[in-house]
Amino acid sequence: MSKRDELIAKYASDIKDKIGQTPDMDLLTKVTIGCGPSIYNADAATVSGSDQKELDTVKKNFLMKKLGLSDGPKLDEAIASVIEKYGKSNRNKYRAVVYYLLTKHFGKESVYK
User: Fold this and answer.
1) Which contiguous run of DSSP H or E holds residue 74?
2) pLDDT of 96
3) Are 7 and 96 spatial neighbours (Cβ–Cβ below 8 Å)?
4) What are phi and psi of 21, to 5 degrees?
5) CA dihedral 95, 47, 36, 34 (to 10 degrees)
6) How far apart are the first and last CA of the chain?
7) Is the dihedral of CA 75, 77, 82, 88 positive or negative?
8) Residue 28 is inside which H or E element, if any?
9) Angle, in degrees to the nearest 10, between helices 73-86 and 95-105
10) Per-residue model confidence (pLDDT) at position 104
11) What pLDDT shows up at residue 90?
12) How far from 4 is each of 20, 23, 34, 39, 80, CA to CA, in Å?
């Protein structure tokens, strides 16, 4: 099993155990691949839910650039909702899982088809 496959399995169990959803493995795999080499870097692989600069980066680089959404309060609300679902006290919020949940939230799975 490759390192990426191991990470995808870890992300899938996070979605199951911490969020209580059954992950769409095809979409999760594509979102993980879309994160590029950041998934292998301990700092870049996670999202800090309490760091506004980090949350702004998620909004600008993922929601606006990747998913093509327009800036507005709905983006901030979605990020806050995903962080809440994932568990604010959970220290390791994996970037791929956050991006996966945001993709599902906005119904933008077609970006990864």
Assistant:
1) helix 73-86
2) 98
3) yes
4) -115, 155
5) 40
6) 24
7) positive
8) helix 25-34
9) 130
10) 97
11) 85
12) 23, 16, 12, 8, 27
What's the confidence (pLDDT) of residue 91?
A: 82
The Cα 19–Cα 85 span in angstroms is: 6
Closest CA relative to residue 47, chosen from 72, 21, 80? 80
Residue indicated by tokens 């800090």 = 48
How far apart CA 1 and CA 97 sit, in angstroms, is 20
pLDDT per residue as tens, the chain (113 positions): 899 999 999 999 999 999 999 999 999 999 999 999 999 998 999 999 999 999 999 999 999 999 999 999 999 999 999 999 998 888 889 999 999 999 999 999 999 98
CA distance 106 to 90: 23
Report the amino acid identity of residue 71. Answer: D
Closest C-alpha among 21, 103, 26 to residue 58:
103
Strand partners, 46: 94
